[in-house]
Every structure is written in structure tokens, then in C-alpha cells.
Amino acid sequence: MKPTNLADNGEIAIVGMTGRFPGADDIDSFWQNLHDGVESISFFSDQELFDAGVDPKYLNDPNYVKARPILSNADMFDADFFGYSPREAETIDPQHRLFLQCAWEVLETAGYIPGVNGAQIGVYAGAGPNSYLLNSYSQSNGFLDSTDSYFRLVLGSEKDYLATRVSYKLNLIGPSLTVQTACSSSLVAVHLACQGLQNHECDMALAGGVTVRMPQKAGYFYRKGLPLSPDGHCRAFDANAQGTIFGSGLGVVLLKRLTDAIADKDVIHAIIKGTAINNDGSVKAGFTAPGVNGQVGVITKALANAKISPDSITYIETHGTGTELGDPIEIGALSRVFQNNDAQKNYCAVGSVKTNIGHLTAAAGIAGLIKTVLALKHKILPPSLHFEKPNSQINFANSPFYVNAELSEWKTTGTNPLRAGVSSFGFGGTNAHVILEQAIF
Q1: DSSP state of 25
Q2: CA angle 128, 22, 47 (to 5 degrees)
Q3: Domain 272-437, what architecture?
Q4: Alpha carbons 313 and 421: distance in angstroms, whole number
Q5: Cβ–Cβ < 8 Å for 249, 19
Q6: CB 77 within 8 A of CB 89
Q7: Distance separating alpha carbons of residues 284 and 281, to the nearest angstrom
Q8: Within 10 Å of residue 44's Cβ, how many Cβ atoms?
Q9: Cross-sheet strand order for the sheet of 204-211
Q10: Cα 294 from chain centroid?
Q11: What is the mean pLDDT of each run of 10 residues along the chain (441 residues)?
Q12: From 96, 102, 183, 386, active-site residue
């Protein structure tokens, strides 16, 4: 196996990771759940939902699915540590609070003290729907009794301030951008952070995303034709796949130029070889529909930027929503990119973290990225859950791909290190793809 090229080829090192996911309060717990094939979806009793304030008339509706991926301790925040009064902290969206805590944590675990060593650290992040503001407004009970109170709540909850709040509180002077491209937000944030590093706009960059759906204990209504699962399970690429389930979670990675990370003797979890983003445009079934040409284009561009061929990729962490329309389009697009390798069948595994933790919307891409980095580090492919029989619209047998439905050793082929692709596609058509490589030094 040949070592990674140490020349400055624009490669980016992942030198820190942290996150909060359904069923996992830290990265180690997240990996253990992935390794063990745990599905971290919460299913609620009628009493739990009634106690949480769900309208009783919903509980007997057969289309009301009593499930959601939730975060434990989503309401916990060390206000004093970050210089907030309890009253001020109450006005801040839990998405912002949790992301700020994780931003500090990822810097701390990587061995960096914010604002001390003079490094320009950028922040690139996306947040999910602002349900906290609406929930707070509807249940204010006098809390929003003045223009000042409402202004403070908006200041604490508006998406625009997600990244800049981190920069302000941690004294980070690099670029600070909130990125909003729906489901692809966090992986687009990773792409922009890599560009910021490559252009020397910053020396390090925090990148990620967060979604906290409020209230947490609640179900959702299933309607045929919409992308929601009828039973709370996501069955990516399976014949019985009928949709996904939306939940809460967040992840943050700390990035540096690879040459700097090596010189500074950082712990390098994985290497980002190349990234790309694009949009589907109008050549697709509708605004929220996936576009095959856009997906082909973004994956092809990421591979070109990474300067590697598709046949060196042996795992794809897919968008994998488990929808009847989306899954065949995604594998079809991948097959077109890998079409020169038709002689090789079923050599590249595919999987979806959504089968474990649901769809985290703005944090979906970073969840898939962190999963894949952990798999590279452990040289193990965790199982993609609920796969029994392939979707009839997907011809896996005559493609380079297979669904990794069982825990398996991830073996290198030839002289290349382990390599993977990570995809994230957003409502509205903004697509992102990242090429990762195992760190070998």
C-alpha cells in the first residue's frame, strides 16, 4: 500500500470531530451504535405523547406515526461557561446552543484553545427549520410581552446567527458563514470550508450542521406520495422502502490544510481529497425531486478535483432516503459515473446512516461524513439497516454496487488506501459530494 502523497495538493485533513446523534451523546457512542447495527428511532406510547402535549385526536389516527429520532439533553446548556445569563440563554435556539458547545468541544479535543494562538479559524454551518421560535411564540405565556423580548428571541433563534455566534463567543476571526441548502447544508458547509482553507482565507475551519426539531416528543402524519415512512423505519434501497423519518442531531468537524496538519503533528482522522457542489436546475420532475444529471455532475466533479478514478472508491455513503423515487435515481446516477467499470461488478459498497438515525435535514450530510470517517479509521463497514430485497427499479446485480447490509471488514484493493464518497442532496436541488481517504502515515 502506497502512503498518501504529502505534497500540497490542496488536500484537507480532518483533525477533529464531535457530534450529538439520536441514541448517542458522543462520537464513541455513535460508532458503537453503527457497529452494532442499532436503530436509534424513538417510538412513543399514547401516554408519552399525551403528556408531551400532542392533541389526543391525533393518537387514534392510523396515519399518525408515533416515532421520531430525538436527542437526549437537548435542553441542557452551560450558559455561565459561555457568558450568558439564564434569561438570555432561554432565548437562544437549542440548535445554536448545542452547536456552540460542540464547536468548543471539537477545538478542545483537537488541542486548540480558541482565540489564543492567533490562527484564523473559520466557521461554516447550517441549521434546520427554526421550530424553536415558533414553539416559543405559541407557548410564550407572557414571555414575549414586549418588543424587546421578541427581538431577543429572534436574535437568539434566527438562522443567520448560527455561525457568527460561534465566532463571537469563541473569538474566531476567520470567515463565518451560515449555509442554507436544506438537506445538503452541512456537506455544502464542508465544501466551502475546504475552499476557504485552500484559498488561505483561514488556517482552520469548523464545518457542520444542526437540526433540533421542537417539540421532540411528537409523531408525524404519513401521506402516500410524500417522502415520509409509514412506520418510522427508513429502508434505503429495499423493495419495501416507502420513505424516511426526520429527526434531530448535529455534527462538527475541524479541518486544516493537510500539509499544516502534518507539520503541526495533529491527529488526522481522515483526508478530504476533493469536494464539489452544484444544482439540478429545472431538468427534473419537480422542485423537491432529485435530479440524475445534477448528481452525476457533482460526483464526477468531486472525483476530478480529487484526481482519482472511480474504481479506487470502495464505499459510498449515500443520501439514501429510502424513497421510491430517490433511491433508484441515486444508484442510477452513481452507475453512470462508474460506467467505465462495468467489467467489475459489486465491488463498491453503499449504505445510508439514515437507516440508523433517520434524516437529520441540515445535519444529514455531516452525520454521513462522520460515519464514513469512523469506518475508515476502524477499517470496518457498519451495516445499512432494513435491507432484505433490492428495490425492483435498481439493478444492483449488473452494477459496481451492493448494499452493505452486514458488518464487514473494509479491505484495501491493490496499492490504494481506503477511499470513499459521501453524498448529500437538498430539496431545491443543491448537491454536494466529498471524497475521503484513509489517513496513513
Answers
A1: S
A2: 100
A3: 3-Layer(aba) Sandwich (3.40)
A4: 7
A5: yes
A6: yes
A7: 8
A8: 21
A9: 176-178, 121-127, 204-211, 249-257, 12-20, 270-279, 430-437, 419-425, 315-317, 348-351, 401-403
A10: 19
A11: 54 98 98 98 97 94 97 94 92 94 97 83 91 57 50 69 96 97 98 98 98 93 94 98 97 98 97 98 91 97 97 97 96 92 83 98 98 98 98 95 98 89 97 97 75
A12: 183
Catalytic residue list contains 319? yes
For residue 215, cis peptide bond before it (omega within 30 degrees of 0): yes
Give me the sign of the Cα torsion angle 363, 369, 372, 374.
negative
Return the SS3 of 67: strand
| pLDDT value of position 149 | 56
Of residues 96, 233, 269, 359, which has the active-site annotation? 359
H or E, element range at 409: strand 408-409
Q: Terminus-to-terminus CA distance in the chain, angstroms?
A: 11
What the block records as the C-alpha cell of 1 is: 500500500
CA distance 27 to 374: 9
Separation of alpha carbons 428 and 282, rounded Å:
10
Query: To 10 degrees, the CA torsion angle through 428, 315, 335, 237?
Result: -70
Q: Which three cell numbers stand for residue 214?
A: 421542537
Sketch the domain layout of the chain as residue ranges: 15-259, 272-437
Q: Does the active-site annotation cover 183?
A: yes
Residue 16 phi/psi, 5-degree rounding, is -160, 150
Type of residue at 240: N
Contacts of 265 (CB under 8 A, 6+ apart): none
Q: How far apart are CA 275 and CA 5, in angstroms?
A: 18
Mapped onto helix, strand or coil, the DSSP state of residue 110 is: helix
Superfamily for the 15-259 domain: Thiolase/Chalcone synthase (3.40.47.10)
Determine the residue type at 113: I
All three cell numbers of 174: 476567520
- Say whether 272-437 and 15-259 share the same fold: yes
Catalytic residue among 191, 233, 269, 319: 319
158: buried, middle or exposed (CB in 10 Å: 19+, 13-18, 0-12)? middle
Which pLDDT score, from 0 to 100, does residue 1 have? 35
Cβ neighbours of 139 (radius 10 Å) = 12
Q: Is 191 a catalytic residue?
A: no
**pLDDT at res. 171:** 95
Q: Is 438 exposed, middle or buried (0-12, 13-18, 19+ CB in 10 A)?
A: buried
Give, in degrees to the nearest 5, the angle at Cα 349 between 348 and 351: 145
| Total residue length of the chain | 441
